[in-house]
Amino acid sequence: MTDFNPNETVKAAGGGAAMRKVFVKTYGCQMNVYDSQRMSDALSGEGFVPTETIEDADLVLLNTCHIREKAAEKIYSELGRIRDMKAERAERGLGTQVAVAGCVAQAEGQEIIDRASVVDLVIGPQTYHRLPHALKRVEAGEKVVEIDYAVEDKFEALPNAPKKAIANRGVTAFLTVQEGCDKFCTFCVVPYTRGAEVSRSFLQILGEAKRLVDAGVREITLLGQNVNAWDGEDEAGQPIGLGGLLHRLAAIAGLKRLRYTTSHPRDMDDELIAAHRDLPQLMPYLHLPVQSGSDSILKAMNRRHTGEQYLRLLDRIRAARPDIALSGDFIVGFPGESDADFEDTMRMVETVGYASAFSFKYSPRPGTPGAEMDGHVSEAVKDERLQRLQALLRRQQVSFAEGLVGELLDVLIEKPGRHAGQLVGRSPYLQPVVLPETAGAIGDVIPATIHSAVANSLVAVGALMPDLNAAPRPSPVARTLA
Ligand code: 5AD
Ligand code: SF4
Predict the structure, then answer these.
(1) Residue range(s) defining the domain that contains residue 470
(2) Of 402, 292, 417, 400, whose CA–CA distance to 346 is shortest?
(3) Count of structural domains within the chain
(4) Is residue 258 domain-resident?
(5) Where [4Fe-4S] cluster 2 is bound, by residue (predicted)?
(6) What is the CATH number for 464?
(7) Does residue 50 belong to any structural domain of this protein?
(8) Same domain, 95 and 186
(9) Which end of the chain is more exposed for a tag (fewer CB within 10 A), N or C?
(10) CB 192 within 8 A of CB 107
(11) How much is the pTM?
């Protein structure tokens, strides 16, 4: 799953008698963002209210990512700062509990407390429903490590988000439908940190989606490490896959947009491809990582498909939904990657033409087969390859955005803009779109003509951009701007 803003703090619902404060910091992917929200919901039932000021927090909760070494190491530098803060609070007579959740917690367990004694609680992603109970043990003076794979269904056991909390989070929402991975790509820690593939039940998902829409959500992104491996049974007990699930969700009145991420090429079945053809709510934007364009590297990565098979799959998806835009993930410098292998990746990117993509230097992860392979690539070569790949991907992203200038796009209005007189929405392709405040209300999907593409955003005709002194790109619609 793709990395997300590492600095996002998550608001929990207010309420409760004791009014303790919790500061939540989320690292890594969208699944962690979702999990942080669910933990915040569980904590709000225990009387915790959110704070965005870490110094005020009675409980600091770090929801961590283990996907690459850098992500994991960040946690320890953060814990160093938290240790100082805890000492300062102690001088003021205030106690502070420190909890580490997420994939570093699952992977390192007790080691975290051994390395950073400021930590009181280590809790893995499969046991979040036990968080309130674990905190009570911490309050009683214990150091707690909760990383067993729970037998009970954590989603069943976690409280539903209060309507007000959902509404505070805005008109777009994540909904985890599947967790874990059975694919065992040789670079990846996910099968070890998140365990085997597990699908949430259809009825649980449907219930949650309806509650989200009822609270004002207009766009739902279904999440899973391998979301298109989702399977379940519909109301009638008939087996369905992700395509079938999307059909059922699209029928919820008031739900305007659906997305899903992250998919594996091997799990893109006909039903799912047909959903792209048949469901106007399903946005024409697909994150479908290929990781490498070289067949021998794909084999060493255990991706279990070739570059050619990936391209033929894209042909089928594009036949179903010709305007679909693609996004992907790439790893450079996997063990054994030669110059020629890397050129295959560059060629693959040239052939596909991505609207956006994430690319990373290979980071050996303890316990994964890749870490033990021969032929590790030097940092210097990884750096050079990453720069070349990112320059190409960036050019493709810019040209995709510029190609939208003059087009009429459906935009979901999400929030007020940074400047007075502005609103910000999302294009079907996930780009932020700056709109004039007259465009509509938050939650509306409105047609907007694109005036220009600036940095990572699109600007709609009529939007005020007081911070931009660059001359607007000439376009057929530029004259209508002040
Ligand atoms: N090194 C570098 N990148 C990795 N990813 C996963 N594991 C590693 C690793 N060990 C990347 C993949 C995946 C994305 C979420 O992170 O590209 O799709
Ligand atoms: Fe990791 Fe591969 Fe599973 Fe994705 S499909 S989570 S990259 S093992």
Answers:
(1) 403-482
(2) 292
(3) 3
(4) yes
(5) 181, 185, 188
(6) 2.40.50.140
(7) yes
(8) no
(9) C
(10) yes
(11) 0.91
